């Protein structure tokens, strides 16, 4: 979740190179729906990671070090010897499921949604093994094929992303797993991969939304 001033900074940095700018009003959107409002070409400017002078590169590096267990690799990397490159791909708008609100009928809770502006970006790592299988933030990380990922988004079957998620669904954090499977972050990454499909075949992927 980005502060509004950060979101403005990112949007201003990509608006000039966007190929599609589609105005959309939130009243046009359904729950769990994501509408692409900005699309950027594959030739859009790429930045190296790390690069503290670039807004997206800085954010990608922060997520790699703080959430994905790459703090050592980030310390050793430089602009001359980067971990990889990153670029924006699209911006989407929609309503994302966040929780269920109890009602008088315990069997029929009311789903709650929040409006979100999603920034989809692509991070290409020179060595994907810098991301460990477990971090302090995530119990299980793995790579999955674009085809399995698309199937998981379509069916909302979390085992398509990682078979170990089925074990998590039986534990105390099952609500977090369910919310993730019904949110816009997975749809954003799916749209990014769909746009890539018209170009070179992409390799395995983790998520790519901000």
The structure class reads alpha+beta
- Portion in beta strands: 15-25%
Cα Rg:
18 Å
What's the assembly state of these chains? single chain
Helix content: 25-40%
- Total number of β-strand segments? 5
Query: Can you count the helices?
Result: 7
What is the string of SSEs from the N terminus onward?
A: HEEEHHEEHHHH
Unreliable parts: 200-210
What does the largest sheet look like?
A: 5 strands, antiparallel
Mean pLDDT: 83
Overall form: globular
Q: Between the first and last Cα atoms, what is the distance in angstroms?
A: 7 Å
Brief account:
The chain has helices at 4-15, 55-66, 71-76, 146-155, 165-168, 174-182, 184-196; strands spanning 20-21, 34-39, 47-49, 84-101, 110-125.
Written description of the protein model:
- With 210 residues, the chain is of the alpha+beta class.
- It has seven helices and five strands, in the order H-E-E-E-H-H-E-E-H-H-H-H.
- Strands 1, 2, 3, 4 and 5 form a five-stranded antiparallel β-sheet that branches.
- The longest helix has 13 residues.
- The protein is globular and about 60 Å long.
- The N and C termini lie close together (7 Å).
Draw up the topology in text.
Blueprint: H1 4-15, E1 20-21, E2 34-39, E3 47-49, H2 55-66, H3 71-76, E4 84-101, E5 110-125, H4 146-155, H5 165-168, H6 174-182, H7 184-196
Helix pairs in contact: 4-7
């Amino acid at each position: 979740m980005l502060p509004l001033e950060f979101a403005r900074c990112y949007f201003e940095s990509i608006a000039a190179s966007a190929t599609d700018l589609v105005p959309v009003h939130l009243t046009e959107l359904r729950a769990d729906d994501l509408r692409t409002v900005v699309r950027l070409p594959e030739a859009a400017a790429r930045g190296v990671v790390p690069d503290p002078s670039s807004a997206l590169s800085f954010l990608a590096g922060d997520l790699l070090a703080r959430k994905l267990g790459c703090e050592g690799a980030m310390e050793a990397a430089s602009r001359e010897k980067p971990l990889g490159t990153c670029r924006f791909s699209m911006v989407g708008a929609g309503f994302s499921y966040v929780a269920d609100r109890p009602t008088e009928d315990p069997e029929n809770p009311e789903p709650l949604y929040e409006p979100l502006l999603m920034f989809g970006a692509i991070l290409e790592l020179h060595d994907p093994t810098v991301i460990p299988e477990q971090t302090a933030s995530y119990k299980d990380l793995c790579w999955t094929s674009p085809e399995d990922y698309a199937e998981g988004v379509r069916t909302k079957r979390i085992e398509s992303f990682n078979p170990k998620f089925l074990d998590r669904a039986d534990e105390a954090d099952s609500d977090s797993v369910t919310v993730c499977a019904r949110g816009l972050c997975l749809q954003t990454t799916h749209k990014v991969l769909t746009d890539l499909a018209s170009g070179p075949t992409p390799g395995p992927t983790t998520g790519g939304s901000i």
